[in-house]
Amino acid sequence: MTENLILVRPSLDWEEELLAYKEAFKSEHMYGGAGLYKFDRLSDWMVYLDRLSKDKPAEEGWTATVFLCIRQSDKRMIGICNVRHHLNSLGLLNVSGHIGYSIRPDERKKGYAKVQLRLALLEAKKLGINKVLVTCADWNIGSERTILANGGVYEDSRLDKSTGNMMKRYWINVTERNSI
Question: Which stretches make up the N-acetyltransferase domain (predicted)?
Fold first, then answer.
């Protein structure tokens, strides 16, 4: 059942799951993974996440709260999501949006992304973000369905110059959603 997912803050208590999650992406890029793939040591990633979570522009120029999505029944890490507090750069406004997420490759097509995004929207609402921008590459049909299932309203598509992808941009008004 997909409803037994929870979001937790990353910590070294989840080291085994984090390493397994990272390994699961060895043959593909980990979009929405809060930069996990860039770090050889989890402790360095934790320092990076701590810096991102400060409510002042980090070195990257944006603030985010990162969560691990855990299946309660077996404590398996199903996904990672990050909630960016402000759209304070053109990259966030045009390409990345408020929320980025990924689902472990062998757990896709089970409804987990839909639930994880709903949980991330709740976190955005707690931060006072009432209108949330969520984006996906035009080729990512699964992510598009996830966004639409959570009330996404299409605005437009914009080019991500760094990847060449056209990014579909959707807005979700969390104050109008009864289920959030």
Answer: 49-151
Q: 61: domain CATH number?
A: 3.40.630.30
Given this model, what pLDDT does residue 88 score?
78
pLDDT mean values, one per 10 residues, the chain (180 residues): 83 93 90 86 89 65 83 96 86 89 95 96 94 96 97 96 94 77
> How far is Cα 173 from Cα 90, in angstroms, rounded to an integer?
21
When computed from its CA atoms, the radius of gyration of the chain, rounded to whole angstroms, is 15
Tell me the C-alpha distance between 72 and 143, whole Å: 23
CB 82, CB 101: distance < 8 Å: yes
Has residue 48 been placed in a domain? yes
Closest of 136, 131, 144 to residue 172, by C-alpha: 131
Which residue segment(s) compose the domain that 57 sits in?
2-173
